[in-house]
């Protein structure tokens, strides 16, 4: 009987060890998820700062562009230019418009990529927070199994992305239309 008692005690010890391992696994999973949440928060702060810098840069570039185009437009309306020199402001306007368009396209593309990354990071952060919350409330989500699937909430809102894309490229179209208007005006006003 002592052998059977010893085996029963050993079995109980193994069971207690399994509970201890499960508890340690839950704690380490919780702490790694919390670390991931903190890392995502830091990444999101950096991404938001980068987006803010891109927006500021785009605004400054647009202001410079419209000032230069305004100077060109005012110069062609001055009486000093003759019809035979219409090509000078035309070329200046075209060159300014081309350089601005290239720069604006690059900034817009980078802005859209950064914004999409931030949207995805925010969705991941919210997902991690839900995992932590469910772990705190229920012990372990899904009966001790880790949740790794991507929920519908994690996917970035396509309406917001389309709206952001529309406004970004609408800005690009307005600049191109302004360049075309100034270039046509270079010829029509003087000739």
Automatic annotation (TrEMBL):
Keyword Transmembrane helix: yes
Basic and acidic residues bias spans: 32-44
Keywords: Membrane, Transmembrane, Transmembrane helix
Biased composition (Low complexity): 20-31
Biased composition (Polar residues): 1-10
Entry keyword annotation includes NADP: no
Region (Disordered): 1-44
Residues spanning the membrane: 169-190
Name this protein carries in UniProt: Transmembrane protein
Organism: Parasponia andersonii (Sponia andersonii)
Lineage: Eukaryota, Viridiplantae, Streptophyta, Embryophyta, Tracheophyta
């Amino acid at each position: 009987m002592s052998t059977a008692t010893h085996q029963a005690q050993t079995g109980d010890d193994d069971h207690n060890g399994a509970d201890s391992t499960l508890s340690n696994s839950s704690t380490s999973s919780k702490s790694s998820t919390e670390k991931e949440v903190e890392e995502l928060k830091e990444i999101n702060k950096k991404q938001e700062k980068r987006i803010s810098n891109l927006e500021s840069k785009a605004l400054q570039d647009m202001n410079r562009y419209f000032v230069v185009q305004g100077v060109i437009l005012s110069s062609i309306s001055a009486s000093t230019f003759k019809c035979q020199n219409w090509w000078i402001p035309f070329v200046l306007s075209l060159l300014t418009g081309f350089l601005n368009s290239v720069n604006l396209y690059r900034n817009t593309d980078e802005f859209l990529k950064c914004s999409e990354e931030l949207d995805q990071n925010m969705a991941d952060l919210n997902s991690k927070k839900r995992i932590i919350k469910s772990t705190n409330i229920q012990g372990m989500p899904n009966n001790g199994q880790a949740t790794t699937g991507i929920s519908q909430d994690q996917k970035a809102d396509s309406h917001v992305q389309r709206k952001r894309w529309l406004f970004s490229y609408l800005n690009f179209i307005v600049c191109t239309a302004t360049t075309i208007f100034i270039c046509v005006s270079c010829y029509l006003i003087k000739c």
